[in-house]
Give the backbone structure.
Amino acid sequence: MPVSRPLGIAFAAKILLLLAGCSFSDDVLWPSLTGGDPTPAPAQGAQPVAMRPATAVAVPAPPPLMGTTTFQAVQVAQGQPTGTFVGQKVAEMRAQLQQLQQTLGGRSSNIQAMRGQAIQSSERYHAFVAAINARLQIGTTPGNPILLNQWNQAQSELDKMNEQIGRMNAEANGVAGDSSVAAFVLESTRAAYGLSGAVDEDHRQLNTLEDEVNKTVVSIDRLLNDLAGDVSRQSTYIGRERSNLTALSVAVKNGELYGQSLANRAFTSTNPMAAAPQQGGGPRRPLVVIRFDNPSVEYEQALYSAMKSALDRKPDATFELVAVSPTRGPVGQSALKSAAAKRHADQVMRSLTNMGLPATRINTSASQSDAAEANEVHIYVR
């Protein structure tokens, strides 16, 4: 099929991207993303599916809300000395509780500071990504150094957020240790009721101390739970944004915008439309055919659009990537052509993983074709 030349400018690559009806709906062939008419034509009465725009702003997901729980120190009542052994134990445990609360107060202040720093880094990260997206949306040069610098700064802010997660984990371990100390003080307080030689005032002070330790334990548990939620949410957010940033780096390199990482779309899309099974026993139709008939084939933007549409239709789809080499040509050239086709398939595989599609969802194989005039890479939906 001849490649269309919109606005008088020829495509550098002759890419035939067919959105296969066998993968998504019965006997419906999606329009070619190169601008030409698909072959064969849609079945009579069937309407071709509208093609989505090739570019979309890759807006990063908003950062998760940080916890607000802080350690609330309990006022420790000061009892009068009774002169008994039990009274001395009460004074020792009261001092332990006060020291524990001072330690937890310092940890709580550190945690609040780290939360604030994470929020600031997230805001700066979003500002850099928004600036890159805005420039890519209107078009720019491949490898624009201004965008590369902004990308590096966005990467730096993600690294800072990741460092905050490490520090939060360290503080969480410290709070967990303090929780053990609180549990020990509580058990010691309860055990002191059984000591002989106590007076009524000793037991009254023990009652008060037990209540104060219990309140401290509850406050520690709340802080631990909130901190664990912060670490979990931030880890998920940073992992997702690293994938998006990887896809954005490919867009900066090529000077054109793709969109969010295919990994996020593949795992978080909730589109209920599933792929319909192929009817009949005919040959499979590829989702994408990339023809490598010149040294510089520009295929990544159209490839991203096709993969995005496929994952919109079938979020749990897996793909088969086939390196196809022609059988035509001089005898003895078959092995060389096959090796070149596999290199092209490796190139497409890297493009897909750079766009965020997990490698575990791509199977690779190789074949030969009498109809192929040049090396091709076919991608099928499984």
